[in-house]
């Protein structure tokens, strides 16, 4: 039997088999199926078994299916399945009565496809691997795009062709990971931001994942996502996180805008007017002084900050990163009257107050570890990471202790924001860590519903659709060098809307790259996402402070429509990165073009826009740049406004003035 679900643009077709069902089709919306299933049948080759094993939602390693199985453990199920259609959801139930096993899965198609799976057993069993419902790779999508990175070097996009065999990526560090983030895309060869067929995958789990992209000997291809191998252990209930999938025939941007909208719906109470942050980390590090920080608060407010975030160093005994994690009480040496004097100063400056925490960690040099060494995850003689260990978040007493400590800090102080960090890789793999941190965040949010939480993990080490259900912002990287951030922000737009991505103005001399960058670039790159400052404001020259104040005012005037709209990247020549942000109602847009390197060509190529109404007419203006550039020709947009149709802007584009590396040009458009 066949079953189908549809949304406005896509159709998914499921066919039953002797085991679990299989996905026959996931692609553009179909009116009638006709003989679709019959047309999908494959022949046999002489060197094969006498029947071709179906690529089911959870293929089994039973000697019939020759690829990577979707389930591995101490049992080998034989499923008898049924399918129920519930609106736009397909609900699958299966049993193995002889072994007391049950399988359940749901696939829902509503803007994006979401899918999860669960296995239950009457008796304890060991499960090493369970995939979320498995999808075949769409015909013609011969390339795979993956994300990789490292600390201060996150979100590189890597492209390769499928080839025979299985490609495995695992985040075995106990978090979503900078090295192997839980995202991937398949696409037709040479797909760009604006052209090609693309399917995007996002696995929503903060505790480490596994991805398998396999080309079978018969030519079929499959994508599997699940918890990292070995994190389940022995039990009676095993459930995957939600796998989110989007597809488009309009290039990478086509899936990006779907994923951005879905991610925005996951995050709790994302306010359109995202407040401008000031974070004191790169200004003072651990050296906290009320006078210095009060002066910094005045300077930040004068520029336009609306939230002041006190970073690491505020709690008992914390002088550096070698001690005190776990002792979540205000340091009375640094803060003899508590945090209230600073909070009062911040409020007097018209800002709200935020605080850095790292609840899942403990230093061996701490009162907590001395009292409860048994609460640490892993062996006592394990290799340290940043002088710290990980608390076992699967233990109820650990969660209770952390809730009580942080709840008290929030109850005794007027705090509306937590920067929640995670700076240590896990010594062992345990799904309990992911469940534990999600439960703790949910409990704190219930007790303090006005408090927002940011996900930070050595920068971008914990960004996924699971943690987004509890957080309102992610920190892409500890690197706030604007040139690096341009690349990172472009890649992140595949899965994240600007409203959820923190982006800060750093120092002229970047602390993590040593690169010197002008304020014009630093300020505007931060204004492209959720804007903030993170540097010693006393080091800003008066003209830089004035420029940052101007850009901050622009951000405030435009953030509501920018953060509710969509972000699309533009296809550009090497050395230039550009994007367009379009209001949800299409009434306006802003395009940013950043010259990151010396151009190969003598003159820049036309900047072709995308996502506009081809029949609409737009008034186009370019914001003047205070920094000199290489231009000396008669480029019309430099000195005057233009009126062009959406079709002209997308087909012919705009010729911008020639510019030096590390400069940015801003073009604004209003629909007439």
TrEMBL record:
InterPro entries assigned to the protein according to its UniProt record, in alphabetical order: Aldolase_TIM (IPR013785), Alpga-gal_N_sf (IPR038417), Alpha-glycosidase_related (IPR050985), GH (IPR017853), Glyco_hydro_36 (IPR002252), Glyco_hydro_36_C (IPR031705), Glyco_hydro_36_N (IPR031704), Glyco_hydro_b (IPR013780)
UniProt key word tRNA processing: no
Coiled-coil regions, chain positions: none
Record EC number: 3.2.1.22
Catalytic activity, as annotated: Hydrolysis of terminal, non-reducing alpha-D-galactose residues in alpha-D-galactosides, including galactose oligosaccharides, galactomannans and galactolipids
UniProt xrefs under SUPFAM superfamilies: (Trans)glycosidases
Domain of life assignment: Bacteria
Binding site for substrate: 151, 311-312, 386, 419-423, 456, 478
Protein name: alpha-galactosidase
Species of provenance: Stagnihabitans tardus
Organism taxonomic ancestry: Bacteria, Pseudomonadati, Pseudomonadota, Alphaproteobacteria, Rhodobacterales
């Amino acid at each position: 039997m066949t079953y189908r679900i549809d949304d406005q643009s896509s159709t998914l077709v499921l066919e039953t088999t002797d085991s679990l069902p299989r996905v026959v089709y996931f692609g553009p919306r179909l009116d009638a199926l006709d003989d679709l299933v019959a047309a999908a049948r494959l022949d046999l080759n002489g060197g094969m078994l006498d029947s071709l094993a179906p690529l089911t939602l959870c293929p089994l390693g039973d000697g019939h299916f020759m690829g990577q199985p979707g389930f591995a453990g101490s049992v080998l199920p034989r499923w008898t399945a049924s399918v129920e259609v519930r609106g736009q959801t397909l609900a699958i139930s299966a049993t193995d009565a002889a072994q007391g096993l049950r399988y359940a899965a749901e696939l829902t198609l509503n803007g994006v496809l979401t899918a999860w799976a669960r296995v239950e057993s009457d008796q304890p069993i060991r499960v090493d691997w369970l995939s979320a419902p498995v999808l075949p790779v769409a015909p013609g999508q011969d390339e795979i795009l993956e994300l990789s990175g490292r600390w201060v070097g996150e979100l590189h996009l890597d492209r390769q062709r499928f080839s025979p065999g299985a490609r495995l990526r695992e985040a075995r560090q106990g978090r979503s990971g900078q090295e192997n983030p839980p995202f991937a895309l398949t696409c037709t060869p040479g797909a760009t931001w604006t052209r090609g067929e693309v399917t995007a995958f996002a696995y929503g789990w903060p505790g480490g994942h596994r991805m398998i992209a396999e080309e079978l000997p018969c030519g079929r291809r499959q994508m599997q996502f699940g918890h990292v191998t070995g994190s389940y252990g022995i039990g009676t209930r095993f459930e995957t996180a939600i796998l989110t999938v989007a597809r488009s025939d309009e290039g990478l941007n086509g899936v990006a805008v779907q994923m951005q909208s879905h991610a925005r719906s996951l995050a709790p109470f994302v306010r359109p007017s995202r407040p401008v942050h000031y974070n004191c980390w790169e200004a003072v590090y651990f050296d906290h002084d009320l006078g210095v920080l009060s002066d910094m608060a005045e300077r930040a407010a004068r520029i336009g900050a609306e939230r002041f975030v006190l970073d690491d160093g505020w709690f008992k005994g914390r002088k550096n990163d070698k001690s005190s994690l776990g002792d979540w009480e205000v340091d009375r040496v640094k803060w003899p009257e508590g945090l209230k004097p600073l909070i009062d100063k911040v409020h007097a400056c018209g800002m709200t107050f935020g605080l850095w925490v790292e609840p899942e960690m403990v230093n061996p040099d701490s009162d907590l570890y001395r009292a409860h060494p048994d609460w640490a995850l892993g062996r006592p003689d394990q290799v340290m990471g940043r002088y710290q260990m990980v608390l076992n978040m699967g233990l109820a007493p650990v969660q209770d202790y952390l809730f009580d400590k942080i709840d008290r800090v929030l109850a005794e102080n007027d705090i509306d924001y937590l920067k929640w960090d995670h700076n240590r890789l896990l010594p062992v793999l345990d799904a309990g860590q992911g469940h534990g941190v999600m439960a703790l965040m949910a409990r704190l949010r219930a007790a303090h519903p006005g408090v927002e939480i940011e996900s930070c993990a050595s920068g971008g080490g914990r960004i996924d659709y699971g943690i987004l259900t509890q957080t309102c912002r992610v920190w892409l990287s500890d690197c706030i060098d604007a040139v690096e951030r341009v690349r990172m922000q472009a890649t992140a737009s595949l899965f994240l809307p600007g409203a959820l991505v923190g982006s800060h103005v750093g120092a002229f001399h970047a602390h993590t790259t040593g690169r010197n960058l002008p304020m014009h670039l630093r300020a505007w790159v931060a204004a492209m996402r959720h804007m903030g400052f993170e540097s010693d404001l006393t080091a800003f020259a008066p003209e830089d402070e004035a420029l940052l104040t101007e850009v901050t005012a622009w951000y405030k005037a435009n953030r509501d429509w920018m953060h509710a709209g969509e972000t699309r990247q533009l296809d550009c020549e090497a050395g230039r990165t550009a994007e367009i942000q379009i209001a949800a109602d299409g009434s306006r847009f802003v395009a940013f073009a950043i010259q990151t390197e010396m151009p190969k060509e003598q003159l820049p190529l036309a900047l072709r826009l995308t996502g506009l109404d081809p029949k609409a007419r737009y008034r186009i203006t370019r914001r003047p740049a205070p920094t000199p550039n290489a231009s000396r020709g008669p480029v019309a947009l430099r000195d005057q406004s233009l009126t062009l149709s959406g079709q002209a802007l997308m087909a012919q584009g705009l010729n911008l003035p020639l510019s030096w590396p590390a400069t940015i040009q801003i073009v604004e458009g209003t629909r007439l």
